[in-house]
């Protein structure tokens, strides 16, 4: 279906490739680093990037995709804010012969040939890693652990899969229980609000907070401190992403564990665009390499952090 757009490039091999890129928004440190990585890589690869910020709204992202189709870009890159509801517009892109690549987050569609590849992290594994770390810190395996989960955007693949992975491992520890779960929308303010809301109607009885990103974890830490609790000591805090601010929080002992999720997808993404336009076959899934960081090793790694 994308032969038409490929032909345009084959006929003029020196022509610059136009990529329409629909980003989620500016909700987190991760996202800002992700945008930067993609913009820089586009320049390095000599690709013309048409950037659209979705401001965390699917509607805005769909409008952006329709503009890209209208402009007849060569390739569309989508980081979908939520995973469902894309069938119609992806069908339109397919009908126009424009290939779509997914960056960072996934979509769930009726048909499975609606995109060329998905470049991003293994969110399920990130969730499992978070719970495995917690299990490794429990001195008494029968110790009762009350967990608060601060979830990212509702319906986004990282939120759903981090939860799922965490719970999958948690099942092996019947003494561990998620007693409260609420959405913080991947923002600092959102994380803070979840803790504030809980405080407003409960006596504090949480041992561990599993926050699905750094910004929400740091917001939660601020809220705990405002109520005289010490994050990292009175409440264990686990986070995902690995932004520099989270490394600093590990060093300051306000955070206990960070499961890495790299936003530096730009080079892989632009390489995929080039390969696609050169008629090469793309793997259906490109996964990034990630680690787990703690108070013990944060100091050693903080200087080499790129985001
Ligand atoms: O963890 C969060 C961001 O989709 C993996 O989105 C990404 C997530 C990331 O807002 O910080």
TrEMBL record:
Residues 25-281 form the Periplasmic binding protein domain. It is found in: Cell envelope. Belongs to the bacterial solute-binding protein 2 family. This is Substrate-binding domain-containing protein. It comes from Anaeromassilibacillus senegalensis.
